[in-house]
Amino acid sequence: MLGLSKSLTVSAPTYIYSNLVTNDTLVATYNPNIYDFVTLASLDDTENYILYPELISELNQCENYGRWDDNRILDSNGKYSYGGLMFQMDTFLLYGKKYKILPQSMTAEWAKTIIYDKDIQTSIANRMIQDGLGRQTWYNCWRIKGLDKYI
Length: 151
Hints:
Low-confidence stretches: 1-46
Strand content: 15-25%
Largest sheet: 3 strands, antiparallel
Shape: globular
Radius of gyration: 16 Å
Structural class: alpha+beta
Mean pLDDT: 77
Order of helices and strands: EEEEEHEEEHHHHH
CATH class of the domain at 46-150: Mainly Alpha
Number of strands: 8
Oligomer: single chain
Distance between the termini: 42 Å
Strand order of the largest sheet: 1-4-3
Number of helices: 6
Helix content: 25-40%
CATH topology of the domain at 46-150: Lysozyme
């Protein structure tokens, strides 16, 4: 295992990083070379958390030809989109933090090390879709693939 390059403490019982949890405080370790954490939906709303596996699969097929690799493209707005669902950094951070999938302290620099992660992208996308943000976020693919059929 590579040496740790940074450590942080987050006050949020709904995250588990490196499986080091004490009471309501999470002690997390960060290493940009290791994806060593698990994300969980907020414990308060897990009963209302809806999964859209077929929709996510079709969206991935349209956005990144079914790949979940470290593909990055420059969009027409001058910003890069990353990974299987082509998240732009601002969207990834905004909704990842909003849904408590990412810690509030996460920076764009740190997020660059995990933005390609399939599980994290899928978790954020599922929550966005549940909140009715799928059509506007992935407008072209949503329309082309007729993804309303899954909602």
